Amino acid sequence: MNDMGGMDLNGRSRRAALLHLGLAASAVALTAGAARATGGANGANDAGDDLMRVGMVVFDGFQLLDVFGPLEMFGALRDRLRIVILAQNTGLVASSAGPAVAVDRAFADAPDLDVLLVPGGMGTRREVGNAALIEAVKALALKTPHVASICTGAAILARTGVLDGARATTNKRAFAWATAQGPKVDWVERARWVEDGKYFTSSGISAGMDMSLALIAKLFGGDTATRVANGAEYRWNRDPDEDPFAALNGLAR
Amino acid sequence: MNDMGGMDLNGRSRRAALLHLGLAASAVALTAGAARATGGANGANDAGDDLMRVGMVVFDGFQLLDVFGPLEMFGALRDRLRIVILAQNTGLVASSAGPAVAVDRAFADAPDLDVLLVPGGMGTRREVGNAALIEAVKALALKTPHVASICTGAAILARTGVLDGARATTNKRAFAWATAQGPKVDWVERARWVEDGKYFTSSGISAGMDMSLALIAKLFGGDTATRVANGAEYRWNRDPDEDPFAALNGLAR
User: Is B100 within 8 Å of A99 when comparing Cβ atoms?
Assistant: First the structure.
């Protein structure tokens, strides 16, 4: 963590504003300036350091905590990684609750990632039918070494086909809809999260934080994950099988 | 929740972009258009409905989960309330982890609020010395019926003086720094959150979710709070005195 967000922000917000308006020439100049001046969030998304890249997909109607719970945990490791917000287009993307996040990169312009995260939310009901997004997520998932979904983000991953034959879980209240998006997936009803090879899938909303800490433990060690959880004063549920919300929603397998 | 974020987004993002560039005349036209066309997040921040207004303060270097954990919980009640992101200026504001949120309203243009939320993060180290922000938060806190801080957001609230004589808590790792910002506050070392009159203050980062559910219970009833927690598959710590992170950081009172 550092206290220098302000230096980065000027370049970042001006660039986002200009890009959105399509003032490409001015934006390119600002981008170069911002990267030189700060080496901050956006500058660091480009080449030039050895940090991991954690990419978070967003779309209109994403669930706030699906995105920012995991990014809180990964974001505590800014000495080791950089976060990249990815979407079909640059600009702003609004959550189902209203607040909007700035997109760092369009899918077509995504850097090589170490971790790809796919959130859920009511917007997934539309996005499972968005062929461009499904193809882009599939391409990113196939080439990224660690891939994780939160909540109904598993429905999007399932639609890409990359989970076929794998064990996976998803939101317990939307279980019937989400699992119908991937009939060849081995869906697990009672699980806080499921790890199968390079794929992690978590249950509803809050479960993304527990899963992210498990993924951080895999990548950086258990001591680091514990330090991140304690720093966030978060009571980490470390047991992937502890899931009271399955029975609460009539699921028990 | 609904699936219509996309309708709102076009007006929202164009307005944010234009406002940031200071193209006020065009922005005003777009704002009116967006409000008419959508009645969505931004339109609803204006008069014309009976929904509660929940205002979240942001500043460069805010902590992601301090902001979006509580907004996840309040955001599940969009049939009853609207979220308004507030900052010193409109445009984008970057978190300490990198991702940036769009500001709905500058402090000077804030609507009447029912709930004011003040997050923490490394940016607080700078903002406690920002007289304009402290004065704006003080004015909002004095006229808002329910006021809450998350993590080191309590340091900002304390600096305004509104917590003088009240019981309050804050982040346990940054306890010495944060409490020094309010020598007349009755700081509580061991607490997940503290309620004193209209003021709620929570411990570090994740504690904001537990406190928000308690505030939702106060505003809308315990059944609603339980429904929100279960919908988020969140294991709500309902006990304000259950705080393992005090002892972990050498605090025990």
Answer: no
